[in-house]
Design a protein that fits this description.
138 residues, alpha+beta, ph1033 like fold, six-stranded mixed β-sheet, 5 helices, 27% helix, globular
Length: 138
């Protein structure tokens, strides 16, 4: 299993909307590296759901429910999306400020490539972020 972090602006698509929908296509990704990451995802992979711009914090966990397929919001047919299934909320949101304060996260893409909307998270970073947020799942 691989681990990821996916970012959404909460005024465009929030954690509450993800929870209400249960399974939601992760559409609108228009960055080549982020799209490559979407194409790499496998069913069952876990991802942190991160509120960008407003909040700047990890607020929940989602699971890949469907692997990459053509993004219905893309008229060109060049971009892909995956379906994300709600797993659960982060008991204690993990802020970007807390991540940046910890030197163990210096190589985390959230710190190094802050504009990337879909990024891989190492197993080591996953465990540490999960612990910071009180997440007891995998």
């Amino acid at each position: 299993m691989a681990y990821w972090l996916v970012k959404s602006e909460p005024d465009a698509f929030s954690w509450d909307q993800q929870v209400a929908n249960g399974v939601e296509p992760w559409t609108g990704v228009r960055n080549h590296m982020a799209a490559k990451n979407l194409r790499t995802m496998k069913v069952g992979d876990l991802a942190f759901f991160y509120h960008s711009n407003i909040g700047k914090e990890i607020v929940g966990v989602v699971r890949v429910a469907r692997e990459a397929y053509p993004d219905p919001s893309d008229e060109t047919g060049r971009w892909v999306c995956v379906d994300m299934e709600t797993v659960g909320p982060m008991p204690k949101p993990v802020t970007l400020a807390a991540v940046k304060e910890d030197p163990d996260f210096a190589e985390l893409a959230l710190v190094r490539q802050s504009r990337l909307s879909v990024m891989a998270v190492s197993a080591e970073h996953w465990k540490k972020l999960a612990k910071l947020g009180g997440w007891k799942g995998k």
